[in-house]
């Protein structure tokens, strides 16, 4: 990468010139797009335009992009598009989209210990990870079938479902910083909590925030009962999810984190908000912690509904609901 020099200052409009030029010269090998509607890339089917969207074809290709980017360029990450609300004004800078790329999966099992080490890149779907693990008779990864996102997103928020969380199985992670440097860290290097993780070393907070997951190694046990048990467990979990969540409607997953010793859905329903709408954004009648897009909702409609829920729950229950959904972009 030494022949690619970092550009320190540039006009915002020249990002297109810079990256297109690098791709034309063969320095970049991924898929590059400009002025892309993010409604095509989010499960809410909502969002303004992204200035630039890039789908790297490898971690090495991603490194080359980061080396090229001016320091002031905003960097956003996008997997399957769940758990995010992209505002109507869109995203400046570059969106790194891992959906369908960075999805390598490898598994090695020790027949003596029945331990299985699984390595997966950040762009792999959590559901695909779960199925691949089940095909190898691995026990414990079934819960990932109920998480509608990628491994990278799951790592960033310690995603969980059906009583399990992803960081319970992490051994090591590989990260990239905005200079394109690859960093390896052990699970013990992080403080891990409910829908939250952070590095224990707080010595450089700015640099800490400019690091992203590109790969992880997980440890699971081999299921002695074999493939049939794992696949049956996934089938049951998905059936439960379909019964309790609006899986066939446009949503982004759970909107709010559950308060300690309580459930956001219970509080919202207690306040009589189930079914409440702001234009085409509506609190699901099936699960009160889901907001659905009934066809033509805008990001501002969803955000207004989120604010209304927080306001009413705080007033009636004296609980401040925190969003699990990440709100991004320009108003």
Structure commentary:
The chain has 331 residues and is of the alpha+beta class. The protein has three domains: 12-97, Uridine Diphospho-n-acetylenolpyruvylglucosamine Reductase, domain 2 (2-Layer Sandwich); 105-244, 2-Layer Sandwich (Uridine Diphospho-n-acetylenolpyruvylglucosamine Reductase, domain 3); 264-328, Uridine Diphospho-n-acetylenolpyruvylglucosamine Reductase, domain 1 (Alpha-Beta Complex), CATH 3.90.78.10. The chain is 26% helix and 27% strand. It contains eight helices and 19 strands. It has helices at 15-24, 59-68, 126-135, 151-157, 205-209, 227-244, 264-270, 299-317; strands spanning 31-37, 49-55, 75-78, 84-86, 91-97, 105-109, 115-121, 138-139, 160-161, 164-165, 170-177, 182-186, 190-193, 196-199, 211-222, 277-278, 281-283, 291-293, 326-328. The strands form six sheets. Strands 6, 7, 8, 11, 12 and 15 form a six-stranded antiparallel β-sheet that branches. Helix 3 (126-135) packs antiparallel against helix 6. The longest helix has 19 residues, at 299-317. The radius of gyration is 21 Å and the shape is globular. Residues 1-12 have low confidence and may be disordered.
Task: Describe the structure using short key phrases.
331 residues, Uridine Diphospho-n-acetylenolpyruvylglucosamine Reductase, domain 2, 3 domains, 4-stranded mixed sheet, disordered N terminus
């Amino acid at each position: 990468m030494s022949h690619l020099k970092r550009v320190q200052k540039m006009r915002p409009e020249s990002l297109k010139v810079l990256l297109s030029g690098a791709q034309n010269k063969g320095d970049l090998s991924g898929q590059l797009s400009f002025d892309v509607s993010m409604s095509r890339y989010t499960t809410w089917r909502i969002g303004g335009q992204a200035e630039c969207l890039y789908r790297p074809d490898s971690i090495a290709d991603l490194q080359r992009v980061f080396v090229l980017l001016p320091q002031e360029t905003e960097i956003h990450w996008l997997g399957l598009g769940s758990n995010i609300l992209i505002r109507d004004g869109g995203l400046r800078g570059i969106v790194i989209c891992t959906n369908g790329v960075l999805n390598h999966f490898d598994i090695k099992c020790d027949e003596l210990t029945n331990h299985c080490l699984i390595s997966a890149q950040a762009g792999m779907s959590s559901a695909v990870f779960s199925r691949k693990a089940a095909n190898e008779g691995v026990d414990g990864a079934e819960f990932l079938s109920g998480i509608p996102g990628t491994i990278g997103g799951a790592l960033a928020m310690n995603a969980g479902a059906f009583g399990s969380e992803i960081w319970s199985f992490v051994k090591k992670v590989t990260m990239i910083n905005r200079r394109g440097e690859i960093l390896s860290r052990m699970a013990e290097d992080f403080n891990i909590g409910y829908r939250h993780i952070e590095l224990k070393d707080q010595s450089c907070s700015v640099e800490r925030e400019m690091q992203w997951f590109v790969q992880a190694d997980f440890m699971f046990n081999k299921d002695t009962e074999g493939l049939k048990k794992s696949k049956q467990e996934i089938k049951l979990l998905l059936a439960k999810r379909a019964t309790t969540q609006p899986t066939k409607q446009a949503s982004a997953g759970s909107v709010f984190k559950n308060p300690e010793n309580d459930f956001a859905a219970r509080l919202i329903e207690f306040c009589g908000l189930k079914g409440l709408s702001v234009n085409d954004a509506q609190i699901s009648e099936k699960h009160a912690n889901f907001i659905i897009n009934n066809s033509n909702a805008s990001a501002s409609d969803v955000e207004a509904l989120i604010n209304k829920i927080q306001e009413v729950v705080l007033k009636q229950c004296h609980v401040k609901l925190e969003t699990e959904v990440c709100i991004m972009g320009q108003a």
